[in-house]
Amino acid sequence: MWSFYFNELVNSLPFFIKGLWMTVAVSGLSLIAGTIIGFICGVIRASGNKLLKFIVGAWVDLIRGTPFLVQVFIIFFILPGIGIELEAFAAAVIALTNLAASFICEIVAGGILAVPSGQREAATASGLSAYQQLRYIILPQAMRTILPPLVGQYVLLVKDSSVVSAIGVVDITRVGWLTVQRIPEGLMVFGLVGILYFIICYPLINLSNFLERRMTVVSTRL
Predict the structure, then answer these.
(1) Domain 2-221 bears CATH identifier 3.10.20.30
(2) Rounded CA separation 165/181 (Å)
(3) What's the rounded Cα separation, in Å, for the pair 44 and 105?
């Protein structure tokens, strides 16, 4: 029986590969957009504008303090009630982008605030504008703090992408649920699902570890 199930699983590999590419597409687009939005919001979060800091902070707290599945359902099932209808793929990308941006915002803000205030004071005394200070003085130093947890967050968000299968996106997890209905050997099926997620995440884990070691060496030399 196990050999029969295994052969059936092997025959289903093309569907798993399609699910793998869907996971990569949803995660990749979301992480690119989320990184851009997160960096902008992180800079605002670390700025001196109290109103904008409050607005961004309230958004971050709301997103981080509510279940991601609920956010996905709101975007896909509730928004059509007010005339905003989205395909499952678009809804998944928007939801995951929103989640990514909220966490990346906090990582970026934390990295910027970790730069010693003396660096800002020296830059101000040198006559640099706020933009020049951010670009040439603050961000280059903050990136040593930002990069390792940023890449680590990418790993978490790739795994969080499995939630979008609940709205019909045919990612790895969705393919697993559809396959297990034909092959009632859950350990075998979802073992393969886990392996495919690992294939995506493992390079990111290694990159995060490398950056952490690299930044530690740089900081020690400084």
Answers:
(1) no
(2) 15
(3) 9
What's the CA gap between 219 and 86, in Å, rounded? 46
Angle 205-90-66 from CA coordinates, rounded to 5°: 65
| One-letter amino acid for residue 118 of the chain | G
CA–CA separation, 101 and 42 (whole Å): 9
Place of tokens 């130093």: 141
User: Sign of the CA dihedral 210, 212, 213, 219?
Assistant: positive
pLDDT band (50, 70, 90) for residue 122? confident
Residues in contact with 218: Cβ distance below 8 Å, sequence separation at least 6, in sequence order: 144
- The answer for residues whose C-beta is within 8 angstroms of residue 193's C-beta and 6 or more apart is 16, 172, 173, 175, 176
Both tokens of 196, joined, read 């495919």
Element (H, E) at 27: helix 13-45
Strongest mean pLDDT among 5-19, 79-93, 95-109: 95-109
DSSP 183: S
**Structure-block tokens of residue 83:** 């005339």
Cα within 13 Å of Cα(50), Cβ side: 0
Question: How far is it, in rounded angstroms, from Cα 220 to Cα 210?
Answer: 15
> What is the pTM assigned to this prediction?
0.88
Neighbours of 75 (CB within 10 A): 20
Residue 92 pLDDT greater than 80, yes or no:
yes
- Cα–Cα distance for residue pair 148/96, rounded to 1 Å: 20
- The DSSP secondary-structure symbol of 76 reads I
